[in-house]
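agent> Task received from the user: take the single chain below, predict its 3D structure, and emit structure tokens. No templates, no multimer pairing.
agent> Plan: (1) validate residues, (2) run structure prediction, (3) serialize to tokens, (4) report one or two observations.
agent> Step 1 OK, no nonstandard residues flagged.
tool_call: predict_structure(input=
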Amino acid sequence: YDLMQPTAMLIAFRLLLNKVPILQNASIICMILKQNLKVLAELQNQVAIAFILLGKLPKKI
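)
tool_result: status=success, residues=61
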């Protein structure tokens, strides 16, 4: 599982949104991701932290 890969990042974000539908600003971030995949790298740390906080960090997809 490599968060550096855009596809993995997008899947990770979708999983995150599924697990926590009320995540603050999640829908806004999702819109940004759809419009500009380049922000994925910038969001890498936030997604990793979010998964750690959820205790749901996937080992593989």
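agent> Step 4: summary for the user.
DSSP finds three helices and no strands in the chain.
agent> Done.
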